[in-house]
Amino acid sequence: MALSAAKLKVGDVHSARLVDDLKRTQIVQYAGASGDYNPLHTDEIFTTKVAGYPAVFAHGMLTMGMTGRMLTDLVGDARLTKYGVRFTSQVWPGDTLDSTATVTEVADGIAKFDVSTKNQNGVEVLSGYAEARVDP
Predict the structure, then answer these.
(1) Cα separation of 53 and 104, whole Å?
(2) Disulfide-capable partner of 120 in 23, 87, 96, 131 (CB 3.0 to 4.6 Å)?
(3) Which domains are assigned to the chain?
């Protein structure tokens, strides 16, 4: 069922758990699906010994994709008209991610949202916006 403008109010918040205990396997699977085999995401030795990070970390686009799924679960398939994000912190193996979409405006068949994804420590790892077509 499609989201209805009549049921939305500015300030409404939709929250969802995106992943509980992100596994390295999921990060590598995303590398395979996306074709992005940057060693920062797949090679522990390179990432820790050469690049100086504590571990491999998730692709930003993996976090964006999981957050996008939360949005389409909310508004329905083929209804997003805009979606943009900024990656604000890295996502590490073992992280649990929760995302929220807060309604900022509903007018002329379009709902606008502020979007935020945070890890288990409350650190925002993604911030952004979305717009979606909604039924009257």
Answers:
(1) 37
(2) 96
(3) 12-22+58-133 (3.10.129.10)
